[in-house]
Amino acid sequence: VPGMNSGLSPSDPTLVAAFKSALLHQGAIVLLMLAFLWLLWATARTWRPAASPGKGGTAAGGAVEPRGRWLLRTGFGVLWIFDGLLQAQPKMAGGLATQVIEPIAASSAGWVQHLVSWGGTVWSYHPVQAGAASVWIQVGIGAWLIAAARGPWSRLAGAASVAWGLVVWVLGESFGGIFAPGLSWLTGAPGGVLFYVAAGALIALPEGAWRRPRSGRLVLAGLGVFCAGMALLQAWPGRGFWQGTAGGKAGTLSGMVKEMSATPQPRFLSSLLSGFASFAARYAFAVNLVVVIALAALGAVFLAGRPRLVRYAVWFGIVFCLADWVLVQDLGFLGGLGTDPNSMIPLILLFSAGYLALVPEVSGEMAGVSEAARDGEAGGADGAEKARDPGKARWLRPGTLRGLGKAVASARARSVAAAGALAVIVLGAAPMAAAAANRTADPILALAISGNSSRLDLPAPGFSLTDQDGRTVSLASLRGKAVLMTFLDPVCTTDCPIIAQEFKQAGQMLGAQAGHVELVAVVANPTYRSTAFTRAFDRQEGLTTVPNWLYLTGSLSQLGEVWRHYGVAVQNLPAGAMSAHNDVAVIIDPAGRIRQEMDADPGPGTSGTQSSFSVLLSQYARQALRQS
Amino acid sequence: VSRRAAGGAALLACTGLACAGLIAGCGSHPARVTSSGPPPAAPLSTSLSTSLVTAQGTWAVAVMGGPDAGNEFWQLFFRPATSGRWSLVTPQGVADNGGMVAAGGGAYLVVGFRPSQNLTFSPLATSTDTGRNWTPGLLDARLADTPGAIAVGPSGRTLALLQDGTIEAATAGSAAAGRWAPLTTLEALGASAPGRACGLEGVTAVSFGPDGNPMAAGSCARPGPAGVFTDAGGTWRSAGLGLPAGGRVRVLGLTSLAGGNMALLAAGSSRYAAWWDGTRWTVSAPVTAGGVRAAGFGPGGSAWLLLGGGRAEIVAGAAGGAWRALPPVPAGTEVLAPQGTGPLAPGTGGSYDALAAAGSRLTVWRLVRGAWAKVQQIAVPVQYGSSG
Question: What pTM did the predictor assign?
Answer without folding.
Answer: 0.81
